[in-house]
Design brief:
alpha+beta, five-stranded mixed beta sheet, elongated, binds ligand LPXRUNBV
């Protein structure tokens, strides 16, 4: 399996209103470094998984909707616990939608999204693509 990873970051505010999260129940900010990895079994006719510029633009487009937002008030996320894991899934699903819509025939079969919360902690989500 081949893979290509691109990286960006997103700055958000949110709260995690569950006692399990201690002080993070209060509104606070976070900057997540976001890595998206695209997989395919065979390279395309240009001997790549996906053009790096195209992959970077796709990730940037998905993150733009979250960047500088208070996720507690984001219409798609209201009432959800926007943990690192959950955000990884949200971003992966949106990236999958974006690829399907804007890049038909892209050939990518699997997608990993990793959010690095700080240098020593990260979480992610892996999904297949149609
Ligand atoms: N598995 C996850 N655990 C935690 C998440 C998460 O998204 N996924 N998020 C948080 C908080 O949002 C915040 O990032 C850190 O909270 P904080 O309590 O300050 O830090 P720690 O949990 O690392 O340390 P404690 O000793 O529990 O305070 C927390 N966990």
């Amino acid at each position: 399996m081949y893979r290509l990873t691109v990286r960006d970051h997103v700055m958000i505010a949110h709260s995690l209103p569950d006692p399990a999260f201690g002080p993070a129940q209060a509104l606070h900010g976070a900057t997540f470094v976001v890595e998206a990895t695209f997989h395919r079994a065979e390279l395309n006719e240009k001997a790549i998984v996906l053009d790096i510029g195209v992959a970077t633009a796709a990730l940037g487009a998905v993150l733009a909707d979250l960047n500088y937002r208070n996720l507690d008030e984001h219409p798609d996320l209201v009432g959800q616990l926007t943990t690192t894991e959950h955000l990884a899934r949200v971003i992966a699903d949106r990236l999958a939608e974006h690829l399907g819509r804007d890049l038909p025939g892209h050939g990518v079969t699997e997608l990993d999204v990793v959010l690095r919360e700080h240098p020593d902690a990260w979480a992610g989500y892996t999904r297949s693509l149609d």
